[in-house]
Amino acid sequence: MQSGDPSEQATPGKITIKAPVSASSAAAENVKAFVAGGFGGVCAVSVGHPFDLTKTRLQTAPPGTYTGGLDVVRKTLARDGPTGLYRGVVPPLLGVTPIFALSFWAYDASKRLIRVLTPNRAESALTTGELATAGFLSAIPTTLVTAPVERAKVLLQVQGQAGSGTQYKGVADVIRHLYREGGIRSIYRGTFATLVRDGPGSAAYFAAYEVTKKALTPVNASSSDLNISQVILAGGTAGVAMWAIAIPPDVLKSRLQSAPTGTYSGIVDCARKTIATDGVKALWKGFGPAMARAFPANAATFLGVEASRKLLDGLF
Q1: 266-281, pLDDT tens digit by residue?
Q2: Which of 158, 195, 206, 288 is deepest in the core (most CB within 10 A)?
Q3: Where in the chain are the domains?
Q4: b/e map 267-289, b = 16+ CB within 10 Å
């Protein structure tokens, strides 16, 4: 499997300075990162959506609605059948290609930007801190797509729980309702909370993946020599690293995006009211399902990214 940045295929232990990249080559790398990221996102949603639905319902339901993640699954299956576990899957499937495509493209672009800003580098390979910085920067443009997709997904996921009726017929219906309710501002509710979650989360995500790949790469070998099981391990580790720190802001994001208009004035108000009502432990609701999802979903993500990237490298 091949990593997204050719400059990082140097032999360990040797100082390698990357030659200037032509405009056509840079454009090709951008396309590859974009397409591979989108394919990885489809893999992530296919594997991880039932876990994500369970997490969201735990985070947003009134106290006492569920006893835990397994209770969410049991009640969802009893009410809606197996397809109920994929309620709200359309928004992430529709949005996942641009979200993950933007994320992996922005990550590669951020790594190139860091190199441009540090021209007198002793080595081509970025440090762990620089990889984390690139990961954080990748979340900024991605949030513009992630926030409205997450808003629609959360509203679809929580409808029907605790005996509530079905308000929305699908993602298009959600967007129409939100626009009539409050225009673009309503559609983008929770954008800052999304960035608060995804900035640090993406920093941990990409840095953990790169560090784990480096640790698994044999001496005098390239990361392109990693086998499928090693890519799965690195991808799963990245997911665990991200969600280990992302749950509290994710809880606040889910509550902001699912609550009636006027319930919260922002993420700080949401945090204050959540802690006052349910205690600090409420900020960790959904931790179990999120962590259960983290490894398989993100292993699938990076496996999809690496496999599609290898295919694209063979094409152009």
Answers
A1: 999 999 999 999 999 9
A2: 206
A3: 22-311
A4: beebbeebeeeeeeebbebbbbb
